[in-house]
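Why predict the complex rather than its parts? Because the way molecules touch one another can change local conformation, and only a joint prediction can capture that. The input here totals 666 residues.
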Amino acid sequence: MTSKTNRQILLVEKPTGKLAPGNFKMSETSIPEPKAGEVLVRVRYISLDAANRAWMHGATYRSAVEANTVMAGGGIGEVIESKDPGFAPGDIVFGDTGWQDYAAVPARHLAKMPRIEPLTHLLSIYGIAGLTAYFGLLNIGRPKAGETVVVSAAAGSVGSIVGQIAKIKDCRVVGIAGGADKCNWLTSELGFDAAVDYKGGNVYKDLKAAAPKGIDVYFDNVGGDILEACLPQMNLYGRIACCGAISQYDGVPSETGPRGVPGLIVVKRLIMQGFIVMDYMEQRDQALSDLQSWVQSGRLKVLEDVIDGLEKTPQALIGLLAGENRGKRMIRL
Amino acid sequence: MTSKTNRQILLVEKPTGKLAPGNFKMSETSIPEPKAGEVLVRVRYISLDAANRAWMHGATYRSAVEANTVMAGGGIGEVIESKDPGFAPGDIVFGDTGWQDYAAVPARHLAKMPRIEPLTHLLSIYGIAGLTAYFGLLNIGRPKAGETVVVSAAAGSVGSIVGQIAKIKDCRVVGIAGGADKCNWLTSELGFDAAVDYKGGNVYKDLKAAAPKGIDVYFDNVGGDILEACLPQMNLYGRIACCGAISQYDGVPSETGPRGVPGLIVVKRLIMQGFIVMDYMEQRDQALSDLQSWVQSGRLKVLEDVIDGLEKTPQALIGLLAGENRGKRMIRL
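Output of the joint prediction:
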């Protein structure tokens, strides 16, 4: 194995403002030897997620990514060599492989995955994105038929699934996304009832027109001004599923929070609840079964944005933070 | 009945900044004649609540109080005359009587109360204050023995009960209040484990010292900077019961919300939930039974701040908003 090299992308310094290509560099090293209890994985696909950027700020639900280490990131890979009885060469696994060709990962940090085709679905609809959309919408948003569901970052990996599941649950669905093209795509291709272009007008007014009966469930991927625009439009007993705060990740975090907290939460008896997909893993089988049946029946479209080449990873993340992707973005190695 | 007069306090203009005595004036009129379906009530005690001030801003969970009308407010009174079969002279009732000696109130807006002594308890421990503390803490905060519960406006009508119930539930209890005297009183008289003086030091640091294991339940009466100081100290899966936002009521509402929303809500998987006591009225009998048994066994002290004279009502509310009361403030007529 050591005749080949392992390409790695390092985070050379933590960004103080917007993330830039210069924050990363490519490096080459030898392929690692797995120690006892470790598994050597050849990475096939690297997942790109807005949360990657949040990890650079400090500890979140995981420890911070430190400068001069391999950039962290989830990946799908194939087991090459195993020093753990739970894994064997050829197994397909998911774990935090990082941005590199090969990773030696402790077996307890890996999940064995089914060898389905296309493998990309393990990072999109049957991966973190699909499960996050499923659990956040159904367990926290708890939409009832006829209710209005609003989702931000609606053209992204999670948002595009949230909106489609909400349609399956017979809700009125409004997506918030950046740009007229994305908004048209949400309504014409994904079946959203309406879309609001946050770059194009007045979000508050456009949302009021798109959700004339108010908002029962807001699936929040972005925080900031868009959360502030949704709060006064929430209906009594509305639910806000707090999935992320993309608007706050890239650059200097906002000095203020949204107005209306906690006043509107009291008056409207709202629930705002944060969640992480890992909290719901004991319900994973049911979620995957539902997602598979919706995909197979054609009710749920799988949207992937696959880019070739490890060297493209930094720019792909920068572009994702700027909102250039539709659906789940990933790198193929 | 018309030989006597009815003194009323009118809100003559809505305050634009801090509430002042000049926003009110005393007026005299004849005692009203109840119409069919109405009940004539002689008001005995008027409840003073921070929410009175919020009603002047606009519609909340009730319609706004308008200028040149009798100031709204809850009261306990005795039925003088009834044009509704559900009430008879001598009945003790609770309702929005407003700030006046006599009120003709639609019967459907009145609740018949037991004739207990002292009657003041119907406005404090067995009234809105006690039930708000009970339902907010137990149904939304859901404290477990050994957890840390923090409550703001801790010397107030609701906060002082929240802290005592949390002690009954075997929690570590930290109160936030204004001034060293109040803080001493919370720990020496009410059994709080610690108190933080928000006027006296650094709330964030003092809270960290008082709640070294972090906060599991925050019962928020105030919003604003104190909510912002609590958010980063919440433990994983913590619960924030949003009861009110006193810090925002008197004056111009804040231009910003608390930092950390929604970022910390996501990372820590918090629940922030607003509530209004009326939402839980079907569980009222159980609540009253618990509260009575705690009062009778001496585990729960009833704290009342009774001021004599209708003419004192404006100043009593202004003082309450400035935090001068301990326990439940009310006016005796």
